[in-house]
């Protein structure tokens, strides 16, 4: 199993490298920053001046090279789903793909001074959160758990980068199941 990070209209290599390290540490699987990309133009909603994150997930799925891989799109554009004003990210529950955006994670969007460390921490937490969904984890009731839902950027700051013990156990079970499935497929 491997995790691919696809930068989509995202050029901050330092932030990508930091994210790669954080994700490898959280999920204990190899992480590769991919050079593959695609145009986001098809997902742009001109009336909202935002990008449809569900459309981006469908495009990410087309780039899935391996059966057991996970793919995280990382972008700086503003994301939405039709029923919400905006989202920080979206993922396929128990699927392969997730996307996160730094657009609404930046303090300067809210009239505050730029804070690179806070942006890095928020991106890491949201990426771990969305990838947790790809492993089948749902929102957690523990406000310290990374799987706790966040509606506002400030709420991200209060939760941990870590999974609670319950979510951690569920994640390990899902990873074990996926590895068994991968090994069975390779033996066939």
Supply the key terms.
single chain, 188 residues, alpha/beta, Collagenase (Catalytic Domain), five-stranded mixed sheet, three-stranded mixed sheet, 5 helices, 8 strands, 16% strand, globular
In short:
The chain is α/β, with parallel strands linked by helices.
Q: Give the number of helices.
A: 5
Q: Stretches where pLDDT falls below 50 for ≥5 residues? A: none
Series of H and E elements? EHEEEHEEEEHHH
State mean pLDDT (0 to 100 scale): 94
Largest sheet: 5 strands, mixed
CATH H-level homologous superfamily name:
Collagenase (Catalytic Domain)
Question: How far apart are the first and last residues' alpha carbons, in Å?
Answer: 17 Å
CATH topology: Collagenase (Catalytic Domain)
Percent range of helical residues: 25-40%
Strand content: 15-25%
Global geometry: globular
- The CATH architecture comes to 3-Layer(aba) Sandwich
Number of domains: 1
Radius of gyration: 16 Å
Please tally the β strands and state the result: 8
- Please identify the structural class as seen in this structure: alpha/beta
Query: At the first level of CATH, what is the class?
Result: Alpha Beta
Largest sheet: spatial strand order:
2-1-5-8-7
């Amino acid at each position: 199993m491997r995790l691919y990070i696809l930068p989509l209209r995202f050029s901050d290599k330092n932030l990508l490298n930091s994210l790669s390290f954080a994700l490898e540490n959280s999920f204990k699987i190899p992480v590769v920053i991919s050079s593959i990309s695609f145009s986001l133009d098809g997902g742009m909603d001109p009336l909202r001046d935002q990008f449809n994150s569900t459309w981006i997930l469908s495009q990410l799925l087309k780039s899935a090279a391996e059966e057991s891989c996970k793919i995280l799109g990382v972008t700086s554009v503003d994301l939405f789903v039709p029923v919400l004003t905006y989202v920080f990210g979206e993922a396929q529950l128990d699927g392969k793909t997730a996307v996160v955006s730094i657009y609404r994670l930046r303090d300067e969007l809210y009239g505050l001074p730029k804070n690179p460390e806070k942006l890095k921490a928020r991106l890491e937490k949201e990426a771990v959160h969305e990838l947790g969904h790809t492993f089948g984890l749902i929102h957690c009731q523990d406000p310290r758990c990374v799987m706790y839902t966040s509606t506002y950027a400030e709420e991200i700051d209060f939760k941990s980068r870590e999974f609670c013990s319950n979510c951690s156990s569920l994640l390990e079970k899902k990873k074990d199941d996926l590895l068994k499935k991968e090994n069975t497929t390779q033996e066939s």
